[in-house]
Structure formats: C-alpha cells, structure tokens
Amino acid sequence: MSSHSVDPAQPQPESFAFTPEMRAKADVIIARYPEGRQRSAVLPLLDLAQRQAGWLSRAAMDHVAEVLALPNIRVYEVATFYTMYRLRPVGRVHVQLCTSISCALRDSDGVMRAAEEVFGIPFGQSNADCTLEEVECAGACVNGPAHSTSSKVQSALDAPWKKSNAPGPASTARRRKSAMITTKI
Q: Whole-angstrom Cα distance, residue 167 to residue 164?
C-alpha cells in the first residue's frame, strides 16, 4: 500500500506542533509571500512538518492550517493531491522505484525483485526498517531504471543489490550520449 494513502488502522497522534527550529524556518518561508498570500506557503510548510515527524498525520496538517489561518480542508486537499507527502509512517529507508515505461524497458522488474529479496518484504509493504513503493516517474528516464531512497534519486541501476549497502548506479557504458550533464553552480 502506498505511503500516500491514509491507513485507517494507523493510530493518529493527538497533537503536533513545530519545534522552535522548524517554526523559525516556517516563519522565514511565510515571510517570502506578499501580504494576503501567505496561504501559498502550504506546500513548503507541509514539507517541514513531514521532515519533522517523518510523515503527515492529521494533527500535523491541522497545525499547518492553523499556522496559515486556512480551513483544514484546504491543507488536506493539497496533502492528498501531491504524492510527495506521506500520509502514513514509512520505514527508516524509504525506497521508491520507478516502474514507468522507460524504467521498465531497462529492467525495473529485476531491480524490484532484488530489492524485495534484500529487504524481505514485497513492494507496497512497510516495516520499521524499510518501505518499498512503486512510483510512476522518478524524473530520470534517460538512465533508468531510477529510484529514490530516502529522497535521493539515483538512476542507471542494475540488479542485484548488495545486502550490505544501498543500491548504487550501474555502468553507463553504451549510454554516454544519454547521460546527464552535471555542472557546478
């Protein structure tokens, strides 16, 4: 099951409040918006709440709504629309594997089987150590298959993964013309 869908069996915390450090960051973000447009800070504030708690509980969404003086439903609409927000707890390692056509043609199924073997759970499941999820696109089609592990995108993966460490990039041999160009800014 996706971490983006609410699990009715998951106990919800009674309350949530930003830590002083996160509240200071929230205030800086809110100040970037013109007077009367502070509601536009809903996405970055949801991200702060998720970074603090690891997922967005109803109490966290309610707190964001309170900070921005919005009806709760406005925050729920945003949090349930964007798949980057997790509405249930995830494991210590959160693996999202792209299975769209570009990655499927580069054997994302093989990477999926290897990940299931390494972590001991099927995709769509979660435990305290790991959450394995399929995603539609990781935005790295040129060197698929791509995955995101705890918010770090990697591409050009080969199976099998080694149990001792996280999956790394595979060889880009025969793919040099499609490789991403990286520059320092």
A: 9
The angle, 0 to 180 degrees and rounded to 10, between the axes of the packed helices 58-68 and 72-81 is 120
Cβ partners under 8 Å of residue 47, min gap 6: 84, 85
pLDDT digits 0-9 by tens, 145-157: 887 776 677 666 6
H/E segment holding residue 96: strand 93-98
Nearest-CA neighbor of 2 among 56, 76, 83?
Answer: 83
CA dihedral 18, 22, 28, 31 (to 10 degrees): -10
Q: 48, 18 in Cβ contact below 8 A? A: yes
**Residue 104 in 3-state DSSP?**
helix
Do the beta carbons of residue 111 and residue 75 sit within 8 Å?
A: no
Which tokens go with 76?
A: 């729920």
> What mean pLDDT do residues 31-57 have?
94
Helix (H) or strand (E) segment spanning residue 147: strand 147-149
Domains of the chain: residue spans and CATH: 1-89 (1.10.10.1590), 93-178 (3.40.30.10)
Q: Which tens digit of pLDDT belongs to each residue from 48-64?
A: 999 999 899 999 999 99
Query: Which amino acid is it at 8?
Result: P
Element (H, E) at 154: strand 152-154
Q: Is the peptide bond before 8 cis (omega within 30 degrees of 0)?
A: no
Amino acid at site 129? D
